[in-house]
Amino acid sequence: MPRHVRGTGMGKREETKNKNAERIDTAGAGTRKPDYQKTIRACFLGYIVQAVVNNFAPLLFLTFQSTYHIPLSNITMLVTINFGLQLLVDLLSVGFVDRIGYRASMLFAHIFAAAGIAALAVLPEILPDPFMGLLAAVVIYAIGGGLLEVLVSPVVEACPTDNKEKTMSLLHSFYCWGHVGVVLVSTLFFRLFGIGNWKILACIWALLPLCNTFLFARAPIASLIKEGERGYTIRELAGHKLFWVFLLMMVCAGASEQAVSQWASTFAEMGLGVSKMAGDLAGPMAFAVLMGTSRAFYGKFGDRIDLNKFMAGSSLLCVAAYLCISLVPGPVPGLVGCGVCGLSVGIMWPGTFSRASATMPKGGTALFALMALAGDLGCSGGPTLVGMVSSACGDDLKKGILAATAFPALLLAGIGMCRNLLKKTAPDTGIQQSDR
Predict the structure, then answer these.
(1) For the whole model, what pTM was predicted?
(2) Mutual orientation of helices 348-359 and 364-392 as an angle, nearest 10°?
(3) Given this model, what pLDDT does residue 435 score?
(4) Closest alpha carbon to 153 in 141, 142, 164
(5) Which of 349, 382, 187 is nearest to 268 (CA)?
(6) Which residue from 63, 262, 268, 314 has the highest number of Cβ atoms inside 10 Å of its Cβ?
(7) Are the C-beta atoms of residues 104 and 386 closer than 8 Å to each other?
(8) What is the DSSP letter of 123?
(9) How far, in Å, are 172, 310, 337, 360, 414 from residue 295 at the CA level?
(10) 338 and 281 in contact (C-beta within 8 Å)?
(11) Angle between helices 198-218 and 164-193 (to 10 degrees)
């Protein structure tokens, strides 16, 4: 889920720091030309780490519930804390990433992610309250996930590649392929070795961010800032109505994606009555495959497609998928709805970013950090709403997902509002008409 900051625009002091950082970071390559393909590959792995952070624990929600006797309302809190803390890190990162540098921030992100994932297997066993152990582990890896949210996209954006647009599209799809890998590998592991050995798998997954830490320690990292450039301040952004519309769209994009994704495994087992293996493969994995396919499709053919129409059609399809999951009886329509939902939400997050960056080219760090923050707010709020409504309705997840239909409907409204505001925007406001 569903992360993107492009340019700092924080003034002369930060600009000087970034120039110095660029000299330091690229100096590690010696006299040879820096190999930025290493950086791009490490960023691809960074999004896979993000997928592990967001999607491994949800596969174990029912296991946590039965093993540690944790109620569904507390399980919901794990999702809320994960994305809520990532949201806070998005906000705070504007103030410290430029100061300590992108390399140090990226290393910290991977270290926190590795420690938190491994802590899932350890802390519930050594603390008096197992739920507090799980919560502490989530807090640790959420810090890493929040940093990755802010860092990965701008590091790729800064790399001097010939086809930035294709590279960025491929980057976004790696989160989906990482999601697929987490579900597939975890499901096969549980099938071969039993769900009772999930702690071993948690430690294995923790090795991925640990290894990527060493890759980023050696990879060249370029500067985002070009001399003489300055982006909008937060106050300047707040003066544009379009900025608030884009924030609304990002909240709805994150919520539309995660409201089903985070509960797909639990919904398949509890709501549809299928086995865990069948539920994980037909629910979360189908969701992730189709979401990645949607992003890869637009990445390849995006120059021939009207983004507004594609996003509007995807929003309508998402509403239909939510209604299918929640209202049509039987396990097959529910599982089909989960897959179609993944296909429909694929364009929402990257499409909103593309629209915002093309329309507000002077947005700078403030725009992209706050967009990521809004997206994480949606990622937290969507699953939380589903969990709260479900708990209030006797743990009926179908009713919770029905309530979340509001998110893709609001995103569709935001697309229309954006189009209308662009028609009324004066040419001297720094806002550009865009057909992307």
Answers:
(1) 0.73
(2) 150
(3) 45
(4) 164
(5) 187
(6) 262
(7) no
(8) H
(9) 7, 11, 18, 22, 20
(10) no
(11) 150
Listed in sequence order, the residues at least 6 apart from 86 whose beta carbon sits closer than 8 Å to its beta carbon are 142, 145, 146, 149, 376, 379, 380
Contact 103, 112 (CB under 8 A): no
Tokens in use for 158?
Answer: 């800064």
Whose CA is closest to 51, among 261, 213, 198?
261
* Model pLDDT for residues 89-107, shown as the tens digit of each residue: 888 887 787 778 889 999 9
- Spatial separation of the C-alpha atoms in residues 396 and 393, rounded to whole Å: 6
Where does 127-226 have alpha helices with state H?
Answer: 130-158, 164-193, 198-218
pLDDT tens, 339-384? 899 999 998 988 887 788 778 777 766 777 788 888 878 887 898 8
* Exposed / middle / buried, residue 19 (Cβ in 10 Å: 0-12, 13-18, 19+): middle
Q: Say how far apart CA 133 and CA 139 lie, in whole Å.
A: 10
CB distance 361 to 229 below 8 Å: no
**106, two tokens:** 């990226």
Q: Which tokens in the block code for residue 421?
A: 């505001």
Query: Rounded CA gap, 165 and 154, in Å?
Result: 13
* pLDDT given for residue 153 in this prediction: 79
How many whole angstroms separate alpha carbon 290 and alpha carbon 296? Answer: 10
Whether 338 contacts 287, CB under 8 Å:
yes
Query: 256: closest CA among 173, 164, 319?
Result: 319
| Token pair recorded at residue 330 | 């039987």
The phi, psi pair for 30, rounded to 5°, reads: 75, -145
pLDDT at 107: 96
Helix (H, G, I), strand (E, B) or coil at 88: helix
Domains and CATH numbers, the chain: 12-424 (1.20.1250.20)
Handedness of CA 337, 338, 341, 343 (dihedral sign): negative
Q: Which residue has the tokens 């949800």?
A: 58
Q: Are 316 and 264 in contact (CB under 8 A)?
A: no
Q: Give the Cα separation of 198 and 56 in Å (integer).
A: 10
Q: What is the DSSP string of 416-435?
A: HHHHHHHHH--TTSS-----
Residue 265 · residue 61 · CB < 8 Å = yes
Structure tokens at 227: 């001399």
User: Which residues of the chain carry a pLDDT beneath 70?
Assistant: 1-32, 162-166, 169, 224-231, 267, 270-277, 279-282, 364-365, 425-436
At 232, give phi and psi (nearest 5°).
-65, 150
